[in-house]
């Protein structure tokens, strides 16, 4: 099963929107003049970051927290369903489990793409 990076990023953005987090600016939306390669918040050496822009690390951290929160919420719903608490519907548990599974798979795919990009850069001849 193969996902394109754009579809994975759009899924992460939709999860962030669902979880009430601010969606960071898209890489393609960043002006080319003030960022290297279009990455928001990553400027030239010696250049200060612009306030209000999320760095790559902050964006990645926010996405990871969103995935972690989804998995924790799923765990809580599963526990509530197993204990027979009222309002713990099987459909809600299954939907939450699928959402957290998709979020985790998207995160793993993004990680794999980042590792591959890093390896490609490190293997470039000087």
UniProtKB/TrEMBL annotation:
The gene is fliE. GO terms for molecular function: cytoskeletal motor activity; structural molecule activity. InterPro entries: FliE. This is Flagellar hook-basal body complex protein FliE. It comes from Luteimonas salinisoli. Keywords: Bacterial flagellum, Cell projection, Cilium, Flagellum. Pfam families: FliE. Belongs to the FliE family. One of its GO terms (biological process) is bacterial-type flagellum-dependent cell motility. PANTHER family: FLAGELLAR HOOK-BASAL BODY COMPLEX PROTEIN FLIE (PTHR34653:SF1), PTHR34653.
């Amino acid at each position: 099963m193969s996902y394109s990076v754009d579809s994975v990023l759009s899924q992460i953005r939709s999860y962030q929107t669902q979880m009430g987090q601010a969606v960071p600016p898209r890489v393609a939306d960043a002006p080319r003049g003030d960022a290297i390669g279009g990455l928001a918040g990553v400027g030239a050496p010696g250049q200060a970051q612009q306030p209000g822009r999320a760095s790559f690390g902050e964006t990645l951290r926010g996405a990871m927290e969103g995935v972690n929160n989804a998995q924790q919420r799923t765990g809580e719903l599963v526990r509530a369903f197993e204990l027979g608490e009222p309002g713990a519907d099987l459909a809600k548990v299954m939907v939450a489990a699928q959402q957290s599974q998709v979020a985790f798979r998207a995160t793993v795919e993004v990680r794999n793409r980042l590792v591959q990009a890093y390896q490609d850069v490190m293997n470039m001849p000087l």
